[in-house]
Amino acid sequence: MLARPYRLTRGIDYRMVVRRGSRCGGATVITSVMTSDERRVPRFGFIISKQVGGAVVRNTVRRRLKAVCAEALDRVPEGTDVVIRALPASASATYDELRSDVHRCLRRLSPADAS
After folding, report:
1. I need a surface site. Which of 19, 43, 59, 60 has the fewest CB within 10 A?
2. Widest pairwise Cα distance in the chain
3. Across-strand partners of 73?
4. Separation between Cα atoms, residue 106 and residue 82, nearest integer Å
5. Over the stretch 55-81, which tens digit does the pLDDT of each residue have?
6. pTM (2 decimals)?
7. If pLDDT is split at 50, 70 and 90, which confidence band does 112 have?
8. What is the pLDDT of residue 3?
9. Do 21 and 34 meet the contact criterion of CB atoms below 8 Å apart?
10. Strand 80-86 relative to strand 43-47: parallel, antiparallel, unpaired?
């Protein structure tokens, strides 16, 4: 599970990452990443619309994405904000498919000199 300090909670933060951050698309998710020079833990936000499915399906997808991001915490540089938008295909995707999509985008969008 992704603890509270690692989550984006304000709408303005979501908008900033989606509008100004780098974007990577996959079959199941679109990942936006924005880095800053702040000395803080990386933060993650999730956007799962009703196009993905009903409440049960959306919550399942959200829980899976939170678990994927909790796994990736040590690979994301500090000061980074990540917003993951679930596409309708994520409803039928397995956990491994979601994980490979997110990890591919994080590798592609993270700076090469990240620790």
Report:
1. 19
2. 41
3. none
4. 9
5. 999 999 999 999 999 999 998 999 999
6. 0.91
7. low
8. 85
9. yes
10. parallel
